[in-house]
Amino acid sequence: MNLTIDPDAADPPYEQVRTQIAALAADGTLAAGTKLPPVRHLATTLGLAANTVARAYKELEQAGLVETRGRLGTVVTARATGTSRRAQAAAIAYAESTRALGIPPDTALALVKAALGI
Fold first, then answer.
1. What single DSSP character describes residue 75?
2. Distance of alpha carbon 108 from its chain centroid, rounded?
């Protein structure tokens, strides 16, 4: 994820982070389920305070664009990417089914790619 902060911009840094993540999700660069960097890591990378990035993540979550899963991190939601809920539910059901069958993730992905012809 390549974000940049313009210290001379009219928008505060948290808003720049928020809008860039939202745009990356909307254009498909960040797919539904993509894990965002931890707050402290992204803050260090961008040269910002952790509270600044935390505020951006909080606002994204309030808008339904990301979901925080505690220790599992913050992930992009299907809503942010425009992915339909039915498609997301089908993907989750497939993942659960392949796990229950003991199919390794690499094999499960290969099966999907074959089914899609890619």
1. E
2. 21
pLDDT score of 14: 96
Contact 92, 77 (CB under 8 A): no
Q: What residue has token string 């069958």?
A: 101
Q: What is the pTM of this model?
A: 0.70
Integer distance in angstroms from the first to the last C-alpha of the chain? 25
Q: How far apart are CA 100 and CA 118, in angstroms?
A: 25
Dist CA 46 CA 40 (whole Å): 10
Helix-strand-coil percent breakdown of the chain, rounded to 5? 60, 5, 35
DSSP state of 30: S
